[in-house]
Write the structure tokens for this entry.
Amino acid sequence: MENNDVLVVGSGISGIASALELANAGVSVYLIEKEAVVGGHSASFCCKATDICAKCSACVVYDKIKEAVTHPRIKLLTNATVRRLDGELGNFHVEIVQQPRYIDEERCIACGLCTGVCPADPKAIYPPFAEAAPFSYILDEGLCVRFKGEQCDLCQRTCPTKAIEFELKSKERELSVDAVIVATGFDVFDARKKGSLGYGRYPNVLTGLDLEQVFTRESYLRLPTNGNEPKNIAFIQCVGSRDEDHEYCSQVCCKYAMKLAGLIKYQNPDTQVTIFYIDLQTTGKGFAQFYEKYKESIRFVRGVPVEILQTVSGELEVRFEDISQGKVCRDTFDLVVLSVGISPGKNSWDLARILGINLADDGFFDVKDSFSPNETNVDGILVAGTCQGPKDIPDSVAHGIAAASKTIQRLIEFASQR
Amino acid sequence: MIIAERKPMAEIRQMIAPYKKLLLAGCATCVAVCWAGGEKEVGILASQLRLAQSKGRKKISVLEATVERQCEKEMVEELRDKVQEADAVLSLACGSGIQTMAEMFEDKPVFPAVNTTFIGMPEREGLWVEMCGACGDCFLDRTGGICPVVRCAKGLLNGPCGGTRKGGKCEIDPEKDCAWVLIYRRLEKQDRLDLMRQYYTPKNFRAVKRPGRIQSVKA
Amino acid sequence: MNKCIVAFCCEHSAYPAADLAGKLRLHYPESLRIIRVPCAGRVDVIHILKAFENGAVAVLVLGCEDGACHHITGNTRAKERVEYCNMLLKEIEADGSPVAMFNLSPNEPHKFVRAVNEITKRIKEPGR
Amino acid sequence: MKNKVGVFFCDCGGAINNIDFDAAVKKVAKFPGVTCVNLSSNLCLEEGEEKMLSCIKEENINRVVVAACSPDFKEHFFRQVLESAGLNGHLFSMANIREQGSWAHDGDITVKAVELIKMAVNRARLLQPVKKKKFPVNKDVLVVGGGFAAINAALQLSRVGLRTTLLEGEAVLGSETAELGGLCGFDIGSMVSEVEGDENIEILTSAEVRATAGKIGDFTVRIRKGGEEISHKYGAVVLATGYQTKLALESELKSDINIVSQEKLCRMLEDPNLEIRPRTIGFMFDFSDENSRLSTLATLNNALAARQKWDSEIYVFCKSVKVDSPRAEKLYREARDCGVVFLKCEARPRITADNGRVKIEAKDVFLGEDTILACDLLVAEELLLPSEGTEALSSLLNIRRDSRGFYQDENVHLYPVASEKKGIFFVGGCRGDLDLSRVLTDVPSVVASVYELLSSGNILAEVERVKADPQKCVACLTCIRVCPHDAIQLVRTDNSKEVAGISDLACDACGVCAAICPAKAIIFQGYRDEEILAQIETIGES
């Protein structure tokens, strides 16, 4: 495989899994990422272990990112997107547009001197989040006074490694590759679309993702409003899953909600936790046992609330139908977590058009048939991970590796035909 | 294999109380295998003693050494210089090793740091069970290779006592198997159950005259 | 005699967590000395005892979360050894010098700092 | 030759600003073994690299210490620099004065920095080189099992040019293709004939594994087929033995004619000349076992089929429908739309025989009242269990199983298809309740993993990174019993003494054995006791 090149679009966990598998098999990989740092959503998830591992796989992501960014056969291009693709299997020409990041990630040694001298407020040049890879500083055009027309080059002058270059324009480059793996991931469902649940209006209504980030940053949970420890928390499942617009189960919400609930219970057993659900997805390796462990201490209520109102005292009143009694009930909580689901990526449609691959009716990339999980309608273009449909981290990794494997198989087949 | 275990710290500290300079002598054979007296254990005990005295007690210094087999005079000989340096020896070998040491260096007090407990085998990592009582009159031909003398809590030679529990466990220790149930099953497999019918006269435990001594004619 | 705390850090979890703590400028006692190990299971009783012999006031063994060890059982063995160590220290009335095992994952810098502060609290001055 | 340590300071381009470097350099220069100390900025850039290379050559240094950022960040880079300078990459040690020094503490931390460097220097002095070598591996693969996953795996392995032996206990391939996996009515015949036609694939039916030995790249497997036992050599082993199902029924109810399994129902549906068609059918799942993903899919598929083919009334009793697999939610909606009734119950319904029919008494949470249903046919709940012989084979191969007895320990680092033992993989239902879509990603995953290992015919690995010193080893077997990767076995030395032999390929360098060895016989280069204690002792010295 030494003389093969493959392009992997998207550096979320499945993209990284694909890239690593290909690279370890000897393929040279271009891994392109539209953001400044790799990892996608999976990099922002917190460890949910209590006294034992909760099998959330967040640490696996950390390992794989580290492996990928240091792999000799993986060429990482950040701030990059695909503009054009032509050719066919064994001979694709891909045009990549790379937005300037103004800071050369090869040279940036994350010393932080630039941030020190930056006059803008808030600082226009700052480090990415701590786990980020590459750990190279980011210059925010929106904040930088220079981009507002002022004469300022303080950061450039202080940079000890001459890593900062303002004059950069967006770069275009042409890659020729044998195959393409699309791993552009998903968008988190925007809970604002469910207005009656009050996300964005009530500060104490959070999404699962918010909670993940709270635990990553502070590692304990506090009320956004007054900073007190929440005593009574509700999780609402299937927000943006299994409804008219989303005829699928997001597959991750029950798991992360229960694991976060478990973590909250572990940190303070007195905290009341209620989970409103339609059907509990307690399958998967080891998860049934996890559920058994918590099903007594966590209150499970069948049925999904339709409305949340904030009382004058700042508490949240959740209105839900208690189906066993067949009437609408009210219950107040001081924190409500919306278990938002996985939605197809906004840009999927554009990319589908550029690459000429099909979208399924639910908005995710379509595959050839139900027996080929990775192959698209275009020979040599494969899909990996959540851009093809909802998956949890282990399934995304598996799907990513599978895509790499199918690529290798196809390339070998192709070579033998020539 | 000889199985031993380390003595309680209090006992060891009491033995070595009068002495300033100690040699800890390990043995790399049986007691090493049963995690009682190998190089690792010597290191741990030595470190422990050093720490003990650093906690505001009198200053002692501790030497460490481990020989292949402490029950061999030639091998113990290697330690001569170190022994001369020390004013007492703390041996982590089995009883015979300790005595060899004591005999080699009669002018030095030699103390046991371990209790030699039995002849046995490892059941799994870190667990050892007694198999042989060294009675000197082996009986295993009649018991399907299972020794009732040590593996039966009562050392019965003629079948199980009345107290065997359900599932063939011993009445004295429900954790342990009844040796005679094991023997029965083994003989059953070999179709030699007739042996169970025989009566065996009480065993002559004086078969070996103490102290035991074997002169080989092979040499 | 100085008052060092020795922390044996698994290179898969605790060591990166410590790095993150640094990146985030989360402060912890300056007396901490980190020794990088390939797995908490590499840490031996003698290493811990020697640390005390060399004047450490406390020893931390930090490994992956229980059930997420890269070497399956390394961290559980480490825990057992830490308990054994505490027993050995008790034997010689040296239980003023604490040994503790904590489990964490590589993206948990706060948990790392908490572990260090926790052990610092447990240190008893000798003779008290 | 005496070891000469070169220390390279890096102030990280000024990021490390609370260290008095001149003072530090003076102190470090006095450390035993240190032959030269070098202060520079951005050591990890080209300019720094050149500086290091030249200095290593001039001073002919043979141990290198870099005092800068975290080894997690740059160790791999500096090791490469050493290699290009002709030094072994293992003769390198890092003092993390950035993350653990400058950044973790306020104020001047020169003292701590110097101590950290001393620890690194003392370790570096003792470091020994570790060579790398290509080990030849056997390129044949053994796939155990004859179901969908196994056949698929064999076909794809053959596609990447690896010869495969397909070992099936049954007399024919595909006979035990699991009905739950959404494969009902799937024609496995075409796949079977494809493997039979593939010259890369050897098929052994009614065969079983009797014994295994060896490590990754060189497994020896004794296989019994027919009367005789044959011994084969393989580079890797893939387990695809699937799962089995068991009807969960009250003891007094024996599975009589009108209580059937999903599989039986499938066959009834496919049977063209089935005279009596059940008018009402009850389905049950998700009461005794949470892992009912497959039961859900089977129920949805079969309920739909029965509705369309027989137009029967269908009632489904369950706690939760497990729709966490592709298309499951769509199927669920489809089923409801064409009149399949779902009753969600917290408690397991009571089932009694009622002259020829099956009476189901349940408390449905929606209606909130007791419902009694008499149906002609009950498709009983099915439990998912590891297939026959899972336990036996796992002990033969000495690999762990999960808490439900399936293959693969519940450790996230092993997912999707790895075992704790290199060269042994799992695929499909034998490692848990995987629906078709997940099996279909498992198979290529395992193929990629195997291809990565064996395709080149050899594996590059470190030689004797971890080794038992034959002089000290007392063959107590402790390490063999504790090794998490089963990398150690007894071997005979030249003077035919038995000692622990650690396989360079199978070893994952964790050091568990080195820590537990009662004879202190195991040498783990880079983490030997001497090297660890050298770091500890610096604390005392300071």
The domain at 189-342 of chain A is CATH 3.50.50.60 (FAD/NAD(P)-binding domain). Chain A touches chain C through 19 residues (CB under 8 Å).
